[in-house]
Amino acid sequence: MWVLTDSNIMEFVGRYIWPLFRISALFMAMPIIGSRVVTARVRVLLALTITLIVVPMLPPMPVVPMLSLQSLMIVLQQVVIGLAVGFFLQVVFQVFVLAGQLIAMKMGLGFASMNDPANGVTVTVLSQYYLILATLMFLSMNGHLVVIELIVSSFHTLPISETGLAVTDFWNIAQAGSWLFSRALLIALPVLTSLLVVNLAFGVMSRAAPQMNVFAVGFPITLVFGLFLMWASQSSFLPNFSTFVEEGFSFVHQLVRVP
Question: What is the pTM of this model?
């Protein structure tokens, strides 16, 4: 005869509630699914669905009292792991937003800003263009499915316990800021260099013909030339995107110890 005990109840509840915290934290922080255009109800429902599907494939869970300090530490560790993975994926997408900001400021389109519905902030039009382009390419390569597969595999390499990420992992996450700026500059550098040459040419023209209004003539030419350079550099967007996403997923694999 099967007897329902407290330990059985704790084991059953913990087997579902702790993976739910890690998956929910990822969906709250990761791009696309974690954006404002996806409501909280949809994210919670998606996290519940994935949890119910993957729990039978997960290793055994620790049996601890749910209302205890040990249980609270386990919950905090799962939330931190999910937020860390989602945060670095956000950093990958912010590379293209920052690159658009740099190009827009150099072209004179820094004033042409619009509201970003995904993050609820105001960004330049070029940043929004690059972000939409990166989002579509990420979905076309099934990046969201790769993220879900990655977080499920993390339960085997980082099992649910009171210990989670190490101190070095947080240091590596902090160093992602330098990676963000270097990769954004790599995208914007061809356009920035070309526009610098154009501005130097206008400086020479202003010295040769002081009566010419450089601001009236230079602004539209710089704007048109910058748009032309953006169009010419579109051929390198896909290789850059593939390289940056591979670097981002490589870091996340190292973060959650997934080979």
Answer: 0.84
